[in-house]
Description:
The chain has three helices and ten strands; from the N terminus they run ββββββββαβαβα.
Amino acid sequence: MKIWSNSFADGQPIPPRYAFGKIDPKTQVTLSDNLNPQLGWSDVPMGTQSFVLLCHDYDVPSVGDTVNQSGVEVPADLPRVDFFHWVLVDLPADLRDIDEAAFSSGVTPRGKSPATPFGARQGINDYTIWFSADHDMDGDYYGYDGPCPPWNDALVHHYVFTLYALDIPVLPVEGNFTGADVRRAIEKHVIDQAAITGTYTLNPALAPKQIAADD
């Protein structure tokens, strides 16, 4: 199976329009367009009954003490963990394309509705946990919310969009299911998979071209 995006090239920076936050020279970070990127795929294996799409960042700091703190840097050697940005299941087997902005267009405080096109279902992404102590942003964040890595991180973050072809039409997950729940549920049901990776940073020292492009 093959997957691609017209929004960014594999292994290359994700444009700010597909991010939750973008660099602001005056305030460090400001909200961005938060559009989901376009995705397309082909060479789907026989027997596919549905698709699952997950997007995760594997460079998230495991300890948040220095995240977005002036005068310090999140060290590159700090252990990292996964952060899910998109959890989408039960995509129909005949689907071959997701349009830009079909699932997300703008930042929605307290999270977007779980309603979806194509009859698919969306789980909650990990902004649900991140904003749980924020009175103005607390809520269930369904669907896609894009990159917003720490602006003082020494690492450029990597965002992996993985499409799984499954041998079942409906994934056995319910309620506010998470990316981790989906990973467990798809075990023994994956016929094939394909992935595309984009990079993103809010650290001005690591992204001079990104700042120039957004001015």
